[in-house]
């Protein structure tokens, strides 16, 4: 437990909000029993138990309830439900995404949760999905297995992209233009006209490429590694069924390096990103290998990497801007200047400029 010491006593004003009452256990268990045939777990058990997880620091994060058949240690199903009113839409979207991904992939990729049931009467968005076993990937990371984990995740993303189809540059522009426009609107006041113009020009030169299923939160904390070394990927709320290639890999490798470098502040993450962009560094050499494998598998042009890296941070800046707005209303210029994804975007622009010189 953290302890705080004050040099003098100060008056404190605290406003607390009581969280909503947790859903009734009996009602949830009844829904699980009603949907038991869809779990393919054999005869309905006599006794079920649950483990409640409240993930994330924000009130709009979801609640995950793991359901166990006593006395088994492995959960049978993970039930997701809204933590507060207003967050139901995100759960509905995640369930919709998972069902669409299942239809697209046709069971050809292991490690994607399968929607087992949807419980509309229990609470908006509530659904049950496959419960995977494993530990978060970042907890296993060290110098000895960094390359192995990076390549394993790369191969998983290549498999996810097998359902992609070629599209014209016009279709790529249909996907990129809203992202660029949002970034200019939200961060234009601090990004600078010159950098924005250069970024727009770089993105406009993207070559012909396939559309892929984009998970869009493919991070080391959302990937479970089983005892056998297989990967399972959680949280598909933000997934895009027709997304751009490489963005998930760029996001994953950046955060893999952040964990490896113990980079928690924006400044340290910028430095980590800079080092990982140098192919002569430890992380940079491995990342270059991963990018090359992915690009070869999807027949991407090497020149596509820079604009796709810019797009990655522009895409994720949307969620960061939303969080800044939720915290304080319209964000100040200082908040925008300190935002992580803006600074990673700036770092990418600086790296590209240095290479050009």
Count of separate structural domains: 2
Structural class: alpha+beta
- Range of helix content: 40-55%
Which strand order does the major sheet show? 1-2-3-5-4
SSE pattern, N- to C-terminal: HEEEHEEEHEHHEEEEHHHHHH
- Based on Cα principal axes, name the global outline: globular
Beta-strand content estimate: 5-15%
CATH-wise, what's the superfamily of the largest domain?
Aminoglycoside phosphotransferase (APH), C-terminal lobe
General description of the model:
The chain has 357 residues and is of the alpha+beta class. It folds into two domains: 25-130, Phosphorylase Kinase, domain 1; 135-356, Alpha-Beta Complex (Aminoglycoside 3'-phosphotransferase, Chain: A, domain 2), CATH 3.90.1200. It is 47% helix and 13% strand. It is built from eleven helices and eleven strands. The protein has helices at residues 25-34, 88-105, 146-160, 169-191, 193-204, 247-260, 266-276, 282-298, 305-328, 333-338, 340-356, and strands spanning 48-54, 63-69, 77-81, 115-118, 127-130, 135-136, 165-167, 209-214, 223-225, 231-233, 240-243. A hairpin with a 5-residue loop joins strand 9 (223-225) and strand 10. Helix 3 (146-160) packs parallel to helix 8, helix 5 (193-204) packs across helix 9 (305-328) and helix 6 (247-260) runs antiparallel to helix 8. Residues 1-10 and 14-22 have low confidence and may be disordered.
Notable features of this structure?
single chain; 357 residues; alpha+beta; Phosphorylase Kinase, domain 1; Aminoglycoside 3'-phosphotransferase, Chain: A, domain 2; 47% helix; 13% strand; disordered N terminus
């Amino acid at each position: 437990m953290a302890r705080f010491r004050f040099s003098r006593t100060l008056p404190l004003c605290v406003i607390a909000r009581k969280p909503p009452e947790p859903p009734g256990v009996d009602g949830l268990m009844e829904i699980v029993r009603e949907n038991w045939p869809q779990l393919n777990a054999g005869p309905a058990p006599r006794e079920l138990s649950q483990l409640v997880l409240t993930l994330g620091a924000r009130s709009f994060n979801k609640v995950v309830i793991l359901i166990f058949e006593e006395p088994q240690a492995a959960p049978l199903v993970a039930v997701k439900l809204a933590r507060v009113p207003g967050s139901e839409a995100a759960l509905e979207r995640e369930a919709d995404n998972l069902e669409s991904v299942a239809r697209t992939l046709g069971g050809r990729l292991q490690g994607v949760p399968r929607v087992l049931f949807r419980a509309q009467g229990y609470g908006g968005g509530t659904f049950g999905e496959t419960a995977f076993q494993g530990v978060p990937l970042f907890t296993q990371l060290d110098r000895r297995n960094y390359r192995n984990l990076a390549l394993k995740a790369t191969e998983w993303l290549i498999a996810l992209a097998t359902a992609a189809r070629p599209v014209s540059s016009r279709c790529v522009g249909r996907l990129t233009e809203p992202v660029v426009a949002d970034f200019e609107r939200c961060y234009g006041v601090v990004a600078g006209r010159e950098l924005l113009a250069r970024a727009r020009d770089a993105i406009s030169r993207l070559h012909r490429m396939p559309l892929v299923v984009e998970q869009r939160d493919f991070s080391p904390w959302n990937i479970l590694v089983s005892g056998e070394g297989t990967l399972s990927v959680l949280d598909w709320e933000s997934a895009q069924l027709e997304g751009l290639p490489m963005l998930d890999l760029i996001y994953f490798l950046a955060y893999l390096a952040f964990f490896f470098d113990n980079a928690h502040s924006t400044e340290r993450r910028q430095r980590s990103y800079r080092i990982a962009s140098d192919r002569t560094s430890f992380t940079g050499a491995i990342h270059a290998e991963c990018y090359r494998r992915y690009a070869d598998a999807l027949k991407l042009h090497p020149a596509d990497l820079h604009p796709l890296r810019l797009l990655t941070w522009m895409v994720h800046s949307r969620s960061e801007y939303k969080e800044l707005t939720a915290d304080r209303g319209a964000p100040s210029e200082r908040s925008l200047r300190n935002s992580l994804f803006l600074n990673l975007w700036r770092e990418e622009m600086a790296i590209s400029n240095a290479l050009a010189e």
